[in-house]
Fold:
Amino acid sequence: MNRFHQEDFRLSSQAHIRIVGVSKRYGDHNALKQVDLDIREGEFFSLLGPSGGGKTTLLKMLGGFETPTEGDIYINGEHVNDVPPHKRNTNMVFQNYALFPHLNVIDNIGYGLRRSGLTADEKNQKINGLIELTQLSGLEKRNIEHLSGGQKQRVALARALVMDPSVLLLDEPLGALDKTLRDEMGLELRAIQKRVGITFVFVTHDQEEAMALSDRVAVLFDGAIAQVDTPRRLYDGPRSASVANFIGTSNIFDARIIAVNPSNIRVEIAGQWTMDLPRDADHSAEVSQNLSIAVRPERIAVNPTVNAADEFVGKAKVATVSFRGDRSYLELDDPYSSTRLSVVLLNLPNSDKPVPEIGDEAVFSFCQQDVILLT
Amino acid sequence: MISSLRRLRHSKSSQGILLVLPAVVFVLGIIGFAIASLLAYSVWTQDYMEIVYAPTLANYVNFLSEPIFSYLLAKSLLIALLASLVTVVAAYPVAYYVSFKVSRHKLLWIMVITLPFWMSYLLRIFSWKLILGYNGIVNSTLLDLGLITQPLEFILYNNFSVIITLAHAWAPFAIIPIFLSMERIDRTLLDAAADLGDTALQRFWRVTWPLTLPGVFSASVLVFIPIVGDYVTPQLVGGTNGTMIGNLMFAMFGKLNDWPQGSAMALISLVAIALTVMLIRWCLGVRKVEVK
Structure:
């Protein structure tokens, strides 16, 4: 199914979590600045940003461990600003798992069920269902210290899911795992989310992880939301240079408006190329206004594979070449941007076109569709 | 000899052994010597000024056949248990407050709390005599307030005053291990418990308390063991009813000059203490908990 169709379908469903004008101050430090966010029912939603961006603070507010200095938080339409954690229908998977060291696997998972009013049989059934879902069979009586990182991760997940939360909060749950396990657990997490259909709010600083797992991602810088979008839209249409650089790699060029027409604006890129863009009604545009544009490294072609149809062609010198098997990363010294140009070339099988070498003069090109206009 | 030592010094694993060797030799030597001499003395007998070296179990038989000895031992264990209980119960909230409610300068707090314990043990016992005595602070205050017409005598020179004095004297030895076990608790565990529906009180009983049990156990043992054998406190504030096994042992090795009987008494106490410590451990339900 097409991701965009899924997106449109979801737009119609109501907001499950609504965050309105939320700020958090610690003394002089503004951890969150006027954050507005709607998270939908059954969504895998990521809060992505560098450390200190405020994403964990926001997650803790959803769990009830922090209260907003300003603004309101609604979950299922209920105002929850001052509802303590033990009275919320949210559950959290903590960064270091926070498993109880004095209890074994099964007692950790069943911890929250003690006062649930369920009979012993119902509890066991629930616990066993989750042990199966998280593939922990055979480890029921195991001591927490004797588990591997991945197993601890599963116990933490099962312990939270057994509570039937309406929202599951995950604070960098994969951060402590090594690379291979992280990818594997990430996909498993995604599959579990699909199966249980619970809204997941996932905090991470790893953009690849956020892109691979999420329905939508909110990018946070310095306590403010920079952009909220699907992974594909974030990648294809970042709205600012900081998002363009945080999500993947981007080549940023300076640009300037040289003419404003009723239906379009004409932009000059790096003093070198001109292009016409459809005029966005929301944005005021003036002649000689400065802009930035971004071009993704894989959209740039380099000779000898340079595309004859491309509008924008330039000359540069190959500064570095780094071979990574399926692809090669190049850096070009070009006269058009302040930094080196990053280019990614696919190493196709039986290619008779050799990858340029360091010191080669290269011709590069890209076309108008590859240009991302930043604000 | 020198060359083999040198060879030892060069092998890496033996460097560790060399480092702990002096301490091990010292400790094993001292303890081993003490236990060995106690064992030896306990099977000898005293004949006025002479030691009779013919091995016999007479001292042990004598201990068990004299009800007063067993009575004093049982009483000492009981008083020590009660004093440890009072100490730990009083120390726990203090440690809890500093560990969970104080955010800065925790060690300074601990130092200040234990400051009164830096002065001489004897002085502290005497100050309890001043407080609890016939003309002491408690009595004179109550007299002045008109609550009593003549001084209370039952508050000093009995088991009660012994327990109070001991509990106060050993408090820092209980506060510190309990405090350390609390410091080692990962605070996100309490967040996790709250997240899973626990109220503050439930969090305490289900997370904090079980995780501080090793500290409570260390505190109990650290306080219990020395109290069983204490003879200074009972002598000074216990009066005639306050006599404990330590006083008797002190007399055996002193005035009564019956070292063999004293040695047997010491060994029986040792075994009784070990059994009681195991009992405490069982009662607290301390499992092998690794708190990281």
User: Anything to note?
Assistant: Chain B touches chain A at residues 186, 188-189, 191-199, 206-207, 210-211, 287, 289-292 (CB under 8 Å).
